[in-house]
Automatic annotation (TrEMBL):
SUPFAM superfamilies: GAF domain-like. This is GAF domain-containing protein. Gene3D superfamilies: 3.30.450.40. Pfam families: GAF_2. Residues 67-221 form the GAF domain. InterPro entries: GAF (IPR003018), GAF-like_dom_sf (IPR029016). It comes from the Bacteria. Residues 1-43 are annotated as: Disordered.
Length: 262
């Protein structure tokens, strides 16, 4: 009896259960593989779009060394397109106020002209989360603008702009906040992923590069103009003195105002 029990194999029902379990595992593995391939394709698509946006903005930076406006407009336009549905606005800190730089939107109800009329706004952390982001040099997120702790100015802007969540990304130059890029979204509770925030920071860095380039370009232009004027004045003086040297009477009268020495 003991030997016959040992020879006894698995029942047919047990075999069928084992096959079903293996089939379920195999199906789950295939579905997981399909999801992985889909995720990779989405990641590649997103990376290509981001690279294209970065390249386009760099072209604008190179072609507009003396002006930030074309760069700002290219940045907000690319941002609104990449992170649709959203709006993007650049602000710049000057004279203790935040000034409007540029806006673009891919959400309905966002009126760029109306947003522009809000600025400039006082640089006050109690009135504007944008000021707080600049001062603290970090990203500030408001997942729901209807919350009671949202500043009244931000709530009014949300009501007129058609958005419910908002993200403030600081522009940082030499460890100092100089402005923000503001992103809005029509859904309450929306948050950008870490990877998206990293790329948004790239937009902020490009805006800072444009500001630095314009400042340096204008400084060089000013110095070049001053140098040209100084050289022109020196040339005129030398020409006058050389001419006066041939006429002692005239030269004697003006000898105190110029020198023939190089």
């Amino acid at each position: 009896m003991a030997r016959s029990a040992k020879r006894r194999g698995k029942s047919p029902s047990a075999g069928r259960k084992g096959s079903k379990t293996k089939n379920r595992i195999a199906s789950a593995a295939i579905r997981g593989k399909r999801r992985s391939v889909s995720d990779i394709s989405e990641d590649l698509k997103e990376a290509r779009e981001q690279q294209a946006a970065t390249a386009e903005i760099l072209k604008v930076i190179a072609s507009s060394p003396d002006s930030v406006q074309p760069v700002f407009e290219a940045i907000v336009t690319s941002a609104a397109k990449l992170f649709e549905p959203c709006s993007a606005t650049i602000t710049i800190l000057q004279d203790n106020k935040l000034y409007w730089g540029a806006s673009a939107a891919s959400i309905s109800g966002f009126d760029v002209d109306r947003v522009r009329t809000i600025y400039p706004i006082p640089f006050d952390v109690n009135l504007s989360p944008s000021a707080r982001a600049v001062l603290e040099r970090r990203i500030i997120e408001i997942p729901d603008t209807d919350r009671s702790d949202t500043p009244a100015m931000t709530q009014r802007a949300a009501a007129t702009g058609g958005f419910r969540s908002i993200t403030f990304v600081p522009l940082i130059e030499r460890k100092k906040g100089i402005g923000t890029i503001i992103f809005t979204h029509p859904e309450a509770g929306f948050r950008y992923s870490e990877r998206q925030l990293d790329f948004i920071q790239t937009f902020a860095d490009q805006a800072v590069i444009a500001i630095q380039n314009a400042r340096l370009f204008n400084e060089v232009q000013l110095r070049t103009r001053d140098l040209s004027e100084a050289l022109g004045q020196q040339t005129r003086c030398r020409t006058f003195c050389a001419s006066s040297a041939a006429h002692p009477a005239i030269f004697g009268r003006y000898s105190g105002s110029c020198s023939t020495r190089p």
